[in-house]
Amino acid sequence: MNLALIRLTRGLNGKLGQVILVSVLLCACAPQERVRTADSAPVRANEAPAIAVASTPTPTPTTTPTTTPTTTPAPASAPVAFVDVTSLLRVDRSRQIVEMKAVAVLDTGFLEQLVCQHGTREHESLFAFEGLASEVHAALLLAGFVPGAPGRWTEIVDQHGIEQNGGDEIVATTIAGIAPNGSPVEITVRLPDGTERAITDFIREAPLGKGASAPPPNRFVFGGSRFHTDLRTGRERYVADGSGSIVGLVTFGDETIGCLDVIPDQASAAAPTWEVFTERMPKPGTTVILRLSLPNQPKGPDGAINATDPSR
User: Fold this and answer.
1) 280: exposed, middle or buried (Cβ count in 10 Å: 0-12, 13-18, 19+)
2) pLDDT digits (tens, 9 = 90+) for 97-119
3) In Å, how far are 28, 55, 56, 59, 65 from 62, measured between CA atoms?
4) What span, in angstroms and rounded, lies between the C-alpha atoms of 32 and 29?
């Protein structure tokens, strides 16, 4: 179901079209309402009501009521709550929030992911999710987030920057990056004791002791990974389901949620910079709740932030 929803929404432009489609799908799955009359058994909304049989009215004595009849007020409607998408995911559509259960998997070392799919990149991620990346994508759609595209980068050789060094050529290169786009996503972590922290609180710059540390990248967007068709089988698959890139820190180009700052995933292009903040990180194996929400950020007409906005 989640892959079908993602495929259907790929062709819709803007937030409105996606909200309409998701609403239709939800309504199609909703149970039929029942209509109850004051003097009849419940009747389904799409059934014809029973035809009343006329009868001779029985005269009743005229009396003056001694008391005023009381009217019982209708019960207030229950507030909108979270709806389970899977046993590990739930959505609050009214507040545009997705919550997912994850497990801490690393307490030391360099990072390339913040959240990976279980069994993929636990050696370089803070947390692992035991479901599928496409399930997270579908939950974000149901919450009203709009996918864009993952970031990417390329290394460009500067032909005018070739230098000689003892007979060896040193080729100068520059990194050209294209930032991901899509709805902005704020990510927080709720620990077992109930405290909630930004996911970037568990990251720090390395090496330690070199002076003031730079703050870690803290802007993320719903890039939406991408689909790939297997040339041998002709089957289409959601790439992040295979790579495990749910929330990326560096730019692999297949993340469901990506860091707005383009960071090459090759050490030759960008030296590893970010590591686990060991003293803050919960012990491996600890279950936490990750909350994905829509922050208060400037957005374009389609609900996506503009990565090239000079005011950001």
Assistant:
1) middle
2) 999 999 999 999 999 999 999 99
3) 52, 21, 18, 9, 10
4) 9
Of 153-157, 228-232, 267-271, 276-280, the poorest mean pLDDT is in 267-271
35, β-bridge pairs:
43
Question: How many domains would you assign to the chain?
Answer: 1
Within a domain: 84: no
Using the predicted structure, report yes or no on whether residue 270 has a pLDDT greater than 70: yes
Which stretch of DSSP H or E encloses residue 190? strand 184-190
Q: Using CB atoms within 10 A of its CB, is residue 17 exposed (0-12), middle (13-18) or buried (19+)?
A: middle
220 φ, ψ to 5°?
A: -130, 150
The answer to whether residue 205 sits within a structural domain is: yes
- What's the whole-model pTM score? 0.69
> Rounded to an integer, what distance in angstroms lies between the CA atom of residue 98 and that of residue 103?
16
In the chain, what percentage of residues exceed pLDDT 90? 49
CA atoms within a 13 Å half-sphere pointing along the CA-CB vector of 42: 5
- Whether omega before 264 lies within 30 degrees of 0, making that bond cis, reads no
Count of C-beta atoms within a 10 Å radius of residue 248? 31
Residue 67 CB-density burial (10 A; 0-12 exposed, 13-18 middle, 19+ buried): exposed
- Asked if residue 150 belongs to a domain, the reply is yes
Residue 116 pairs with which residues in a beta bridge? 128, 245
**Is 92 contained in some domain?**
no
- Which residue in 280, 269, 213, 220 sits closest to 245, CA to CA? 220
> If 0-12 CB within 10 Å is exposed, 13-18 middle and 19+ buried, where does residue 42 land?
exposed
Give the H or E element holding residue 289.
Answer: strand 287-293
CA distance 287 to 301: 37
